[in-house]
Design a protein that fits this description.
There is one protein chain. With 132 residues, the chain is α/β, with parallel strands linked by helices. The chain has one domain: Murein tetrapeptidase LD-carboxypeptidase, N-terminal domain (Rossmann fold). Helices cover 33% and strands 11% of the residues. The chain is built from four helices and four strands, in the order βαβαβαβα. The chain has a four-stranded parallel β-sheet, sandwiched between helices. Strand 1, helix 1 and strand 2 form a beta-alpha-beta unit. The protein is globular, with a radius of gyration of 14 Å. The protein starts with 15 loop residues before the first strand and ends with a helix.
């Protein structure tokens, strides 16, 4: 893989956000807070698609490592998804780093938005795929 810096397209009014949970299930939040978060994004003009693993709970994580990696890969590959938002921070993102397909991410650059534990994922993706 060639070393370069890739800047993804900006999000715009009407952009579709893929909501993933790379760490904790979103259900660690109350239904009310989940609804508030989604309504906030919708009121800002975003369309939302939630990954299937977001509400799973396997030993405290939002699904197996494979399910969490698959959710990310699917959103990167999906041409209808304009950006990816990690709903939670947490403790388990580091489990995904060795299983990511960095070439796939490099070929399908999108904004990856998150906080806390997501930083390790963003740093790995920048380091190996050049995506900022």
């Amino acid at each position: 893989m060639k070393s370069l810096i890739i800047k993804p397209s900006s999000l715009r009014l009407g952009s579709k956000l893929g909501i993933v949970s790379c760490t904790l299930p979103i259900t660690t939040n109350s239904d009310e807070n989940i609804e508030k978060a989604y309504n906030y994004l919708k009121n800002k003009g975003f369309k939302i698609i939630e990954a299937p693993n977001c509400r799973k709970n396997i030993n405290g994580a939002a699904g197996s490592i494979q399910e969490r990696v698959e959710a990310l890969h699917n959103f990167f590959m999906n041409p209808e998804i304009d950006g990816i938002l990690c709903f939670n921070g947490g403790w388990y993102t580091n489990q995904l780093i060795e299983y990511l397909d960095y070439e796939l991410i490099q070929q399908n650059p999108k904004p990856l938005i998150g906080f806390s534990d997501t930083t390790s994922l963003q740093n790995a993706i920048f380091s190996k795929a050049g995506l900022i």
